[in-house]
Design goal:
Elements: H1 25-51, H2 54-80
Helix pairs in contact: 1-2
């Protein structure tokens, strides 16, 4: 059983320097675009494998990727506003989504 308080350890959380992690809208958007491009390539392959048609598979992939990019961007912006689970507990309130 662990009974030693964390403050007694040499590298207690209060002694570890850290930066508060948050991101700009531009960073969140770039991450969303790059993630979407990776997903687009995978979905084109899956769509082609399932339908046998590159055109149909490509259309499915583009629709899925567009929806995915928007939802990923909004998801990232939402989580950037939540301080829970961050070291230091600060959040970003620069502008609504």
């Amino acid at each position: 059983m662990f009974t030693t308080p964390i403050a007694d350890y040499p590298l207690a959380m209060t002694q570890i320097p850290h930066q508060i992690s948050h991101q700009t809208k531009t960073r969140a958007l770039l991450k969303a675009v790059l993630w979407t491009l990776m997903g687009l390539l995978v979905m084109i392959g899956v769509g082609f494998a399932m339908t046998g048609s590159l055109a149909t598979g490509g259309k499915m992939a583009v629709i899925n990727s567009a929806i995915g990019m928007v939802t990923y961007f909004l998801y990232e912006r939402l989580w950037d506003r939540i301080s829970w689970g961050r070291l230091g507990g600060t959040n970003v309130n620069d502008a609504p989504f």
